[in-house]
Write a structure and sequence with these properties.
Blueprint: E1 2-8, H1 9-28, H2 33-43, E2 44-46, E3 52-54, E4 56-60, H3 64-76, E5 79-80, E6 86-88, H4 97-107, H5 109-121, E7 126-134, H6 139-154, E8 160-166, H7 176-190, E9 193-198, H8 199-209, H9 217-232, H10 248-256, E10 264-270, H11 275-278, H12 285-297, E11 330-339, H13 362-365, E12 366-371, E13 380-388, H14 392-407, H15 412-416, H16 422-440
Parallel strand pairs: 1-4, 1-7, 3-5, 4-6, 7-8, 8-9, 9-10, 11-12
Antiparallel strand pairs: 2-3, 10-13, 11-13
The chain binds guanosine-5'-triphosphate.
Residues 9-11, 14-15, 61, 92-95, 134, 136-140, 165, 167-168, 172-173, 176, 199, 217, 220-221 line the site of guanosine-5'-triphosphate.
């Protein structure tokens, strides 16, 4: 079964290109025939000459980034994008969600849908769709939301996962919080699950764990792609009966997003280090999983600076606040282990009922995938995909900042002129307030 990835806007196209690059090089590493075949079937189709072509569409309102992503893929010599699997125009969406959603999206709907249909027909069976974009600009967020809506209309029963990059808190785009609120509120109605990477967090990983001095988007994207690849590459799941799962998105969604009120997923991976250090490091599963568990409950996205004081609260003392420093309650977690001796690895206490909301049993709330194949040069690695309170604070900040701007009606006219009304904003605020309230009451 295959997954179709739709890359939207500058960010979506750049992150997507890194993802396919990592997936391809990981699949082709060493002697790993079955794994490699499963990965390639999932993410690539082959030409008559055996060349790998990504199952992806590149969509942007300007051609520059698409051209660059296509030529970088071709230059890799290992894989490429399809010759005509892209759609671009001459001018971007000016960081305006309304321009993307109300103007560019509808104007180019037929052309984009035609590309999607053609790509889906190339799959023997469609396992689902991934839409990748940032929430802060105009094309990824606005056109991306519109395209997700079209995908939902055309494929009502397919799994749709949105991968979203959240902007730096300091912000390069003045209206980024408006664009983020409008995107999230709409996607919440359309998507099966929303997997989030925050640029600030990934930037810190580049600086502190990878020791990169001048961090570029390409560095940030490699970290995001590594984490995504470690989720999406083939693994043995509880239902796959000893063979690599053929339904990765369906199993991901059923493991993590079982309730329509809770769709926000965050990721952490361990270990992450400069490639020059990997060869000199050894890890044990108990050590890795002990760190990962503490990263989860203290809501730390990297193994540096973990707060070891945070403990699961006693049942009676379960109080939650946005104030921070508190225990991060989970609704569901998916632990993915890859590499040497993986069958002897225990779950490291991540299945402990004390970590979870009381209304799901930990059997339902915890899932485990394994693969004996080392991922992306790490002899052992563990990734945790979490539906927890981890994104509550950044979401609350984002909505709060957008609300403050909205209260003074700043920049609203720029959205109204493309067809978004004040009521549309209010509806989006209301629906995200509901999400915030649901996550804060998770206990
Ligand atoms: N991680 C990461 N973030 C990016 C990248 N490119 C842009 N961003 C972030 O994306 C946001 C801006 O969105 P873009 O994707 O550049 O904009 P767009 O969707 O192309 O929309 P328009 O420029 O309005 O047409 C900002 O928060 C940037 O920090 C990238 O390659 N990687």
């Amino acid at each position: 079964m295959s997954v179709l990835t739709v890359q939207l806007g500058q960010c979506g196209n750049q992150v997507g290109q890194e993802l396919f690059d990592i997936i391809c090089s990981d699949a082709q590493e060493g002697q790993r025939k079955t794994y490699s075949a499963a990965s390639c079937e999932r993410f690539f189709h082959q030409t008559a000459h055996g060349d790998l072509v990504a199952r992806a569409l590149l969509i942007d309102m300007e051609p520059k980034v698409i051209n660059r992503s296509m030529s970088m893929a071709a230059k890799s010599g290992r894989w490429s994008y399809g010759e005509s699997s892209h759609f671009s125009q001459k001018q971007g969406s000016g960081n305006n969600w309304a321009n993307g959603y109300c103007v560019h999206g509808p104007r180019h709907r037929d052309a984009v849908e035609e590309l999607v249909r053609r790509e889906v027909e190339r799959c023997d069976r469609l396992a689902g769709l991934i839409a990748m974009m940032s929430v802060a600009g105009g094309t990824g967020s606005g056109v991306g939301t519109y395209v997700t809506q079209c995908l939902r209309d055309i494929y009502p029963s397919s799994f749709i996962l949105n991968h979203l990059t959240w902007p730096y808190g300091t912000g390069e785009v003045i209206v980024q919080n408006y664009n983020s609120v409008l995107t999230l509120a709409h996607l919440y109605q359309l998507s099966d699950a929303i997997l989030v990477h925050e640029n600030d967090t990934v930037h810190r990983i580049c600086s502190r764990l990878l020791n990169i001095k001048h961090i570029s988007f390409s560095d940030v994207n490699r970290v995001i792609a590594h984490q995504l690849g470690s989720i999406l590459q083939p693994a043995l799941t509880a239902d796959s009966h000893g063979a690599y799962s053929r339904n990765p998105l369906g199993e991901l969604v059923s493991a993590l997003a079982c309730h329509p009120e809770y769709k926000l997923l965050s990721v952490c991976t361990i270990p992450q280090m400069a490639s020059s250090s990997i060869a000199y490091s050894t890890f044990s599963w108990p050590g890795l999983l002990k760190h990962l568990r503490q990263m989860l409950i203290s809501n730390t996205k990297m193994e540096e600076g973990i707060d070891w004081q945070v403990r699961p609260p006693a049942d009676s003392g379960r109080s939650r606040s946005l104030a921070g420093g508190s225990f991060n309650t989970s609704l569901a977690n998916l632990l993915i282990l890859r590499g040497k001796d993986v069958y002897s690895a225990e779950t490291g206490g991540i299945d402990d009922p004390a970590l979870y909301t009381s209304w799901l049993s930990s059997k339902e709330a915890f899932s485990l995938w394994k693969s004996p194949v080392p991922f992306n040069k790490y002899e052992k690695s563990a990734t945790l995909v979490s539906n927890s309170q981890a994104l509550l604070r950044p979401l609350d900040d984002m909505v709060g900042k957008a609300w403050n701007m909205f209260a003074s009606r700043a920049y609203i006219h720029q959205y109204i002129k493309f067809g978004i009304s004040e009521e549309d904003f209010l509806d989006s605020f209301t629906s995200l307030e509901q999400v915030i309230s649901s996550y804060s009451q998770l206990c």
